[in-house]
Amino acid sequence: MSRILASLALLLSLALPLRAEIDIQRITTPGGFSAWLVEEHSIPFTALEIRFRGGASLDAPGKRGAINLMTATLEEGAGDLDARAFAEARDSLAAELHFDVGPDALSVSARMLTENRAEAAALLRLALNEPRFDADAVERVKGQVLSIIRSDQKDPDKIAYQTFSRLAYGDHPYGSSINGTIESVSPLTPDDMREAKDRVIARDRVYIAAVGDITPEELRELIDDLLADLPAKGAPMPPDAPWLLDGGQTLVPFPTPQSVAVFGEPGIGMDDPDFFAAYVLNEIVGGSGLQSRLMRELREKRGLTYGVYTYLLDRDHADALMGQVASANDRMAKAIEVIRGEWERLQREGVTDEELERARKYMTGAYPLRFDGNGPIANILVGMQMNGMPPEYINTRNAKIEAVTQEDIRRVIKRLYRPEKLHFVVVGQPEGLEAQD
Amino acid sequence: MRKTFLFGAALALTVALAGFSRAEQGAQDNVSTFRLDNGMDIVVIEDHRAPVVVHMVWYRAGSADESPGVSGVAHFLEHLLFKATENMEAGELSATVAENGGTDNAFTSRDQTAYFQRVAADRLELMMRMEADRMRNLRLTEEDIATERDVVLEERNMRVENNPGALFSEQRGAAQYLNHPYGRPVIGWKHEVEKLTRADALEFYRRYYAPNNAILIVSGDADPAEVLEMAKRHYGPLAPTPGLGPRMRPQEPPQTAARRLTYRDPRVAQPYVTRSYLAPERDPGAQRKAAALTLLAEVLGGNPTTSYLARRLQFEQPIAIYTASFYDGTSLDDTSFNLTVVPKAGITLEEAEAALDQALAGFLEEGVDEGELRRVKMQMKAALIYERDNVQSTAQRYGQALTSGLAVEDVQAWPGILQAVTEEEIMAVAREVLDRRRSVTGWLMQPEPAGENAAAQEEPSQ
Predict the structure, then answer these.
(1) Region A83-87 average pLDDT
(2) pLDDT of residue B16 exceeding 80
C-alpha cells in the first residue's frame, strides 16, 4: 500500500458515505396532476421538468420523425407570437424553455426567474397549448433536421448505433432513428405536426418535478395553468420490442481511419430483482472512469483505445447491455478479441471481492453527489417518477447497492455476460475482421 | 429550435458565453483569494447548499507554451499525470478518488492545463495531498510513454481523424496564425505526437508544473480559512521553478492579405463556410474592447432566431439552415472572431459566402438592434443567478481567466463592463475587426466528382 493510502486509512474508515438530504413534497393539483417539489429558496429561480411518456416512439405509421420535428418546432411560435416574437418574449424574460424528445419521453425543461415567473410560465403554456406550426417555420426546422439526418449517415458512431438498433429491434420504433429518414421527413406538413403533438403531449402520461424558489401553492396553480387544457389521452404506447440479434459481428464498410464498434446483448431492467447486481457488475466491467476492467485491459495495459465503456440501457420496452469502443482500423480486431476475452474470463473467474468492494464504495459515495443543483435534482426526480419509484428510494438506494453479494454477481454473470449472445457492429475498414452473423 | 441542430463547437460555445457573466456587486461575496509564499494562487468559491467540493489545480501552461517540434506534449503530459509518482502507483489517484465516491478528470487547452476532482467535502484534504504529490513527484517509465502515446493517438483518431469538420478546423487554425503557436492543434500534429518522448514530457513537466505557475481553485462547501491552512500544509512545501518569466510567445505579424482554403472530404455530409478574423483578447485592466466583441458576437449571430445573421439569412432571405458568430476573449494572446453559415440544400458555398458578406455590410450600415442588445444584456444578468446553482462554472470561469493572463479584479469587473458597453463601442469594434483583408475564409465540402473540374463549384451544395 502506498504511503498516502496508509496514512489516510484511519480517516477513511471513520467517514461514512454522504447522505443526500432532499426534502421531497408530493403535491396534487386541483386539476388532478401530481408532482414532486423540492423548495429551495436561496436562489431566485425555479427549475421545472415535465415529461410525456412515449416520446418519439409514438410516431404514427409512415410518419417517422414527425414527433421529433414537432418537438423542435414547439418554440417556433405560439398564439399571437411568430417564431421571432416568441424568442424575443422568452429572452426578454431570460427564461430558458427547452423541448427535447427521445425514444421514451418528450421532455420540457424550464428555468424561470422568480421575478417574472408568471410571464415565463404563460409563454410555456402558449408553446404547449397553442403552437402555431407555421408552414415556414416547419420548413425551416425541417431543413435543419434533414441536414442532421444526412450528417448521421456519414458519422461512424451514428452508423454503428443505428445499425445495431435496426438489427436488434427490427420494425419496432427502437429499431430506427427518432429523426426519421429523408423520405419520411421531407413530406411532413403542419397538419402532421398538430397530429404528432396530440399523440404525445397529453394529460394521461405526464410526470412533473420542480426544484427552486416556488411554494406548493404556486406550483399547483402553475401546473394546472400549463397542462389542464391539454388533450386527455394520447396515442397508445408501443408494444415491447423483440431482440432479433444473436452473437457474432456485423461489418459496415466505411472509409475512415478509426473503426467504431457498438456491441450488446439483451439486458435486464430496473424492475428485475437482479438489477442492482447487474448495475454493480456493469460498473466493474465497463463503468465510468479508468478503473473498469475494460479500460484497464484495453487502454491502460494495451493502449488500444481512448475509451471503452458499457452501460445498462433500461428502456420502457426493451432492456439491453450495451457498449462502445473505437480503435484504429489495424487494431480493432485486437480490441474486440480482448473484450470477448473479458466476457469469457467473467464466466470463468467472476469478479474479486476487492473489485466488488471498490465498485460498491464508488457507487454509494457518488450517488449523493448527483444532487448538485436545482436542475439536476428536478431531472432525477422526474426520472424516478417515470420509473415508478417512491421518493423514499433516495434513502434506500445505497442499501441496495451495499446488499449485492458475490452470489448475486455470479448469478447475473450467467444471465447477462454470455459470450455467445454478444454481438458487435463494426463501422470502418477494420483489418482482419470478418462478419459472423 | 436550438437543441436539434448541433453544429460543432460554435453553437455550444456561444451558448456558454451567456454563463460567462456576472453582476457588478454581490456575486463576488462568495469568492476569497490568497497567495502562498511559494507563489501559488488560491481561489475559494463558497456554496454550502450541499456537502460537496470541487478541487482544481490549473497550470499556466498549455499547448501554446510548447516548443516547436513537440506539439501535443502539454496534452500528452496531462495523460501521464495519472501514472505513478514517488508516493502513488499508476492509476492510484483516480482509483482513490473513485473509492471515495468522487470523479476526477483533466483537460488541456491553448493557454492552460487543469486537473480536477469532485468529492464529498470532507475528502478535500486527501485530494490536495495527492494533487500536490503529482505536481512535483511524477515517475514515468518508458512503458508508460509507449502505451499512453497510443492512447493519445486513438484520442486524436476519435476527435480529429474520424471527423472532417475537425480536420477542417485544424487547417483553418493553421491558416489563421502564421507565426503564433495558436496555429497548432492542442492535441498536436499526428507526426509529432507519434514521436513524443519521455524526455519531452519531463522537460515540460519540470518547467511548468510548479506552485508559482499554478492556481488552486476550491468551490463548494469549503471554509476559506481552512482551505488556506490545508493548502499551506500540502502545496506550501513545494519548490517553485526559478526563473519562470512572463509568457512570451511569437506574435502575429499584421495580416495584409485575405486567406482562403477549401477542405474536401468524402465524409462531408453538410458543406459550410466559415470566416474568422484575428481579434484582440481581454487584457488585464483593459477589457473594454473584448467586451464589445463579446456583445458583437451575441447581437450578430448569437441567438439562433433573433440575431442579425439569423434574421437576414434564415428568415428574410432564407439561404441558410444555420448561422452563428462566436468570440471568446479569454485568451492570453490575440484570438479570433468567427462566423459560420450552413447553406440550405441547393445553395452553393459561393452564394452562402456572398450572402454573408452582404449581411455583414448591412450590419455595419444599420448598426446594433437596440432590443436585441437589451435582451442579450438581460440574459447575461440572469446568467449570474442561474450560475449560483452550479459553482463549478464559477470555478471554471476564474480558472480560465487567471491562466489567460487576467487577475481576480479583471474577472470581477468583467460583468459590469459587459453591461456598460454601448452600441457605439460595438460598432466601432465591428468596423475594426470585420476587415476582409484580415480574414480567413474556409469552405468544407465534398470532393469534386471524378471527371469534372472547377465547374463543380457552381453545382448545388447538396
Answers:
(1) 97
(2) no
Chain B segment 12-51 residues within 8 A of A by beta carbon are 49-51
DSSP category for residue B91: T
Which chain A residues touch B385 with a CB distance below 8 Å? 43-45, 113
Q: What percent of chain B has pLDDT over 90?
A: 88
3-state secondary structure of B320: strand
Q: Determine, for residues A72 and B268 on separate chains, whether the beta-carbon distance falls below 8 Å.
A: no
Question: Residue B28's pLDDT is what?
Answer: 56
**B93 pLDDT more than 80:** yes
Joined together, the cell numbers standing for residue B346 give 441547393
B78 is catalytic: yes
- Which helix (DSSP H) or strand (DSSP E) does residue A264 occupy? strand A258-266
Q: Could you say which of A47, A91, A257 has the minimum Cβ distance to residue B306?
A: A91
pLDDT higher than threshold 60 for residue B9: no
- A-chain CB neighbours of B100 within 8 Å are 12, 361, 365
What DSSP string describes A199-263? HHS-GGGEEEEEEES--HHHHHHHHHHHHTTS-S--PPPPPPPP----SEEEEEE---SEEEEEE
Cβ within 8 Å, pair B161-A258 = yes
Asked if the model's pLDDT at residue A384 lies above 90, the reply is yes
- Please judge whether B311 and A111 are an interchain contact, meaning their C-beta atoms are less than 8 angstroms apart: no
> Which residue's C-alpha cell is 499551506?
B232
CATH architecture observed for domain A3-227: 2-Layer Sandwich (3.30)
Query: pTM (2 decimals)?
Result: 0.92
Locate the chain B residue with the closest alpha carbon to A114: B385
For chain B, give the percent of residues with pLDDT over 70: 91
Q: How far apart are CA A373 and CA A377, in angstroms?
A: 6
Report yes or no: B84 and B185 within 8 Å, Cβ to Cβ.
no
Contacts of B88 in chain A (CB under 8 A): 2, 4
Q: Of B78, B131, B281, B298, which residue is the catalytic one?
A: B78
Homologous superfamily in CATH for domain A248-428: Metalloenzyme, LuxS/M16 peptidase-like (3.30.830.10)
Instruction: Classify residue B316 by its DSSP letter.
Output: I
Q: What is the pLDDT of residue A372?
A: 86
Kindly indicate the confidence band of residue A4, based on its pLDDT and cuts at 50, 70 and 90: very low
Q: What is the pLDDT of residue A247?
A: 96
B374 touches chain A (CB under 8 A): yes
Complex ipTM:
0.92
Give the B window 279-308 contacts with A, CB below 8 Å.
303, 305-306
Gap from B409 CA to chain A (nearest CA, Å): 24
Of A324, A321, A309, the closest CA to residue A258 belongs to A324
Burial of B143 (0-12, 13-18, 19+ CB in 10 A): exposed
List where CATH 3.30.830.10 sits in chain A: 3-227, 248-428
Q: How far apart are CA B2 and CA A433, in angstroms?
A: 40
- What pLDDT digit, counting tens, does each position of A11-49 carry? 333 334 455 568 999 999 999 999 999 999 999 999 999
